[in-house]
Amino acid sequence: MSGSLLGPLLFFILFNLVRLATRYYGVAYGYSKGIDIVKDMGGGFLQKLTEGASILGLFVMGALVNKWTHVNIPLVVSRITDQTGKEHVTTVQTILDQLMPGLVPLLLTFACMWLLRKKVNPLWIIVGFFVIGIAGYACGLLGL
């Protein structure tokens, strides 16, 4: 083997120098920030930060409920044939979508929140939604 012994030695020294410096200053920085957080806990800053994060989380969950939850109620309210012979069907879902899109998922979310406040087991809520969905589809009250 040919080569200089200076390469591995230089790598070992510089690598450990950077590692130890980062470790020392990182611990010192973390300690000082931890002391600052403990001081801020008494001033109410951490409570405000936690409350703000909770509000943001609830906002995001509300947006996800509207985006990912879809309930279709295909019950026909009226059938009208226009002058050209084209039939227009009005369903409960079209009426609800005209009033407020996503109204039924919103009501289901509020029902879940109400049941959770009444200390109902979340597993029973999920099973209940499955039963309501399957029975509603079998009866023709709910569609895909």
From TrEMBL:
Location relative to the cell: Cell membrane
Keywords: Cell membrane, Membrane, Phosphotransferase system, Sugar transport, Transmembrane, Transmembrane helix, Transport
Entry keyword annotation includes Cell membrane: yes
InterPro entries (UniProt xref): GatZ_KbaZ_carbometab (IPR050303), PTS_IID_man (IPR004704)
Segments crossing the lipid bilayer: 99-116, 123-143
Protein's recorded name: Mannose-specific PTS system EIID component
Pfam families: EIID-AGA
Domain of life the protein comes from: Bacteria
GO CC annotations, alphabetized: plasma membrane
GO process terms (BP): phosphoenolpyruvate-dependent sugar phosphotransferase system
PANTHER family, A to Z: N-ACETYLGALACTOSAMINE PERMEASE II COMPONENT-RELATED (PTHR32502), N-ACETYLGALACTOSAMINE PERMEASE IID COMPONENT-RELATED (PTHR32502:SF5)
Coiled-coil ranges from the UniProt annotation: none
Gene: manZ_4
Naturally occurring in which organism (per UniProt): Escherichia coli
Annotated membrane topology: Multi-pass membrane protein
Source lineage: Bacteria, Pseudomonadati, Pseudomonadota, Gammaproteobacteria, Enterobacterales
